[in-house]
Structure formats: C-alpha cells, structure tokens
Amino acid sequence: MSPDGVGAPRRQVVTAALLIAAGVLVLFVPAGEEGRVLVPISEGHGLSAVDGVGAALLAAGGTWLEVLVVRRLPHLALPPRALFALGLLAGLGVGLLVASVFSGFFWWWAVGASTLGIAVLVLLPLTARR
C-alpha cells in the first residue's frame, strides 16, 4: 500500500476478484478428475479436496470483497433503492446456491450464481474507483 493510499482500493479489489476467479476456475474441474468425495453433502453433491481448495479461494476473495464494499459503502453514492435491490439480488443468489445443494433443484445453482454474479459485477467497479 502506498503511503498516501492512492490506488489501494483498486489493488485490493483486483486481488479479491482474482481470488474469486481462481476459486471458480478450480470448482470447474470435472468431477471425474477431482478424486474421491471426502464430505458427502447430499445425493449427487459432495466435497473433494479440489472442491475444498476452490471453496476456500472463493470464500477468501468473496469475504475480502464484501469487507471492501462495506468499508466503501458511503463513497459508493448509491441510492437506498439500488442498495436494497443489490442486497436482494445477492441474497437471492446465495439462497439459490445453497438450496440447490440440499434439494432436488440441481440446476438452480446456475440461476443463483448468475444473480449473485450480477450483484458482484455491479459493485466491483464502484468499489474499485477512487
């Protein structure tokens, strides 16, 4: 971090986004190449060691990005309705992702990931700007 702090939010946002992208890429490894399931979750779902690494990268990057967004929330200058809509979109996305793991709605993860991704793609450039 530079002494005057210029560019620091942008670098941190880029680092968090790279962690998220790396986690997503690791989670895209085909199931046949992941190895054995270490923690069974539900029928058709389980965590392998590869999934654990991808989830850890995704959680670290997502948490870091969330902290950056919350810290810079006053500087984002978003109206209350936009904040509510983004929060609702992100919450719906996370809810659908979790529900798809524990229910028979297997392909709902794509809808959940898309809605969460839209919220992240809106907040990413707003958080990175000075």
Structural account:
- The protein is mainly α and 130 residues long.
- Strand 1 and strand 2 (45-47) form a beta hairpin.
- The two termini are 15 Å apart.
- It has helices at residues 8-27, 49-76, 80-102, 108-128, and strands at 39-42, 45-47.
- Helix 1 runs antiparallel to helix 2 and helix 3 (80-102) packs antiparallel against helix 4.
- The protein contains four helices and two strands, in the order H-E-E-H-H-H.
- The mean pLDDT is 82.
- Helix content is 71%, strand content 5%.
- Strands 1-2 form a two-stranded antiparallel ribbon.
Descriptive keywords:
mainly alpha; 130 residues; globular; 71% helix
Helix content class: over 70%
Strand content: 5-15%
Rg measurement, Å: 17 Å
Mean pLDDT over the residues? 82
Give the overall shape. globular
Please trace the helix and strand order, writing H or E for each element.
HEEHHH
The strand count comes to 2
Distance between the termini: 15 Å
Largest sheet: 2 strands, antiparallel
Quaternary organisation of the protein chains = single chain
Could you name the ranges where pLDDT drops below 50 across 5 or more consecutive residues? none
Query: Which class of secondary structure composition applies to the elements?
Result: mainly alpha
Task: Count helical runs.
Answer: 4
User: How is the largest sheet built, in terms of strand order?
Assistant: 1-2
Topology:
Layout: H1 8-27, E1 39-42, E2 45-47, H2 49-76, H3 80-102, H4 108-128
Antiparallel strand pairs: 1-2
